[in-house]
Amino acid sequence: MEFYKNLKASEWASLLPFGIACAAVGFGVKTLIDKKIGCPVNLSVRKGESKVVDSVDIEDLGNKAVFCRCWRSSKFPYCDGSHTAHNNCCGDNVGPLIIKKKE
Ligand code: FES
Asked: Who's near 56: CB < 8 A, 6+ residues apart?
């Protein structure tokens, strides 16, 4: 069963296109699966909880509150500006939700 031990360099070289084709198909399938089911949005926020839910009383918001929508903030659910690095890294375009009183 260990046929590969007796292969010559030229025989390994002839297998290279097949190996590359298999890797390309695998990568393509993985990409399709990731797009179909999506990757996790939440990478680090309270991962021990089954669902991350936050509640803020309207009276406590003050004149303005800025909430994170990228899930990268160290102050989640509030925005700490981490979306900028995330957008630069991933080509994404997410930004915070800003809630403020009318002027
Ligand atoms: Fe997430 Fe700003 S840090 S939206």
From this structure: 65, 77
Q: Quick one: which atom of ligand 1 is closest to the CA of 82?
A: 3
- What is the Cα–Cα distance from 96 to 78, expressed in whole angstroms? 8
Q: Give the residue, out of 44, 45, 71, 73, with the most ligand 1 atoms within 8 A of its beta carbon, to mutate for a pocket test.
A: 73
Long-range contacts of 58-62 (CB under 8 A, 24+ apart): 61/99
Backbone angles phi, psi at 94, to 5 degrees: -80, 150
DSSP secondary-structure letter at 63?
T
pLDDT digits (tens, 9 = 90+) for 6-22: 788 888 788 788 878 87
State how far the Cα of 15 lies from the Cα of 33, in Å rounded to an integer.
Answer: 27
- The string of pLDDT tens digits covering residues 39-95 is 788 999 999 999 999 999 999 999 999 999 999 999 999 999 999 999 999 899 999
